[in-house]
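On clarity, I found the account of how folds are encoded harder to follow than it need be. What matters is that the chain and its backbone geometry are given together, residue for residue. For the editor and my fellow referees, an illustration may be useful. For illustration, here is how one protein appears when written out as sequence plus structure tokens:

___
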Amino acid sequence: MKLLLALLIAASASYPAHSEDIPSYRRVNGRTATSMRTCTRREYREEFIPGTPETPGYVRNWYEYVEVPCNGQQVETDTNDCKEGTLIGGLLGGGLAASGSRGKGRLWAVPAGVVGGAMIGCQIDGG
């Protein structure tokens, strides 16, 4: 029973609890709408048009509307993925714990080694 509990804890350490970049959908007036909103910002643009000896050059200017996040900050997504490091670290940690323990000590040492190795492997891999 303890081994099953330790394996469940070790297996759940390698998967994220939730994902923030998946939009949620809801029904609004019979249509599906996402909960992610975008806002626009007005930006000033310029372009220099070169001239010739007969006609001088000039600057053309205009405003463009660009989409930005509504909270006014850049949305930074975490692209670090530590799945491989978690798997390799868990295997190495479990193997080291199994080789360094004897008898009934393996019942707690191997799961602890798997969890510890998975956490260290994730940190090394970039998580």
Observations:
- Confidence is low (pLDDT under 50) at residues 14-22.
- The chain has one domain: 2-7+39-125.
